[in-house]
Specification:
It is a single chain. The protein is of the alpha+beta class and 270 residues long. 19% of the residues lie in helices and 32% in strands. It contains five helices and twelve strands. It has helices at 5-11, 37-47, 64-71, 75-88, 151-162, and strands spanning 14-15, 54-55, 110-112, 121-128, 132-143, 167-173, 176-177, 185-186, 195-198, 210-222, 228-241, 248-264. The strands form two sheets. Strands 1, 3, 5, 8, 9 and 10 form a six-stranded mixed β-sheet that branches. Strand 11 and strand 12 (248-264) form a beta hairpin. The N and C termini lie far apart (37 Å).
Length: 270
Amino acid sequence: MSPNLKALRTSFFFLLVTVAACSDGITSPTRIDPATRNLQTRAEDQQDAYTDRDDGGQIQVLSNQRVRAATGKTIAEWGSLWWKWAFDNPQVLGDTDGTYSALGDVGGPVFFAQGSGGEPTRANVIVPGGQYVLLPVATYIWTFFGTCSELVCARQIVNRNFINGITSVSVTIDGERVQNMQAHLVRVDNGNPPFTVDAGPIGPDGYGGILPAVQGGYWLMLAPLPPGKHRVAMSATAPILDGETGELLSGYLHLDARLRLQSSRGRHDQ
């Protein structure tokens, strides 16, 4: 388990496996050694893939209703799956240059993009043709452990302490700002129930194993990319929460992620 994995349960923001397949039928990627030569090669290819913007069409941002109709799951369900994937592949959480962006291809209809964990993120991302793209604009997770192991307090931490404290959230796609970001807000409620994450080996303090969790925040789903190169800029100001209690601390976290997306021909458009 990454030494920072426990803190991720409450303090990781995004502007944001050991099992062969999840119960929802989506194949999950096997944990990959950061030094894997193939992954490094793909990352180098991605870093060389962009020069100037060369749009091949306008990207569509799906409403929450369209997300379910197009993918078979709600945006809240996809957000939970994203966090399960992030716990299984913690190297993506600190990736600020796109080195591990290829891990976002989890073998289903949706590509999992990355965001900012507090440091500026600048990444070139190759998305297999035909896949939708999930963007973690500003999101927060709480696992049930320690001082808050019940849904009632976990809901309060995510909804009141984190979401209500987000300001200046903004997303632009190819220079055009996404309107009505409130329509893309996911809260912990009856439509977004707890799920489980693999928190790794159980440590001396008892943290680890398979734990219930809840998540919320701003998520966007993009329709499959038109041909060409596209720029996505995400920013937000988020409150800082105590990683052990979920209580508000002083100060704010400034999130800034800029992704360059390009569709590549792959199994999904053959």
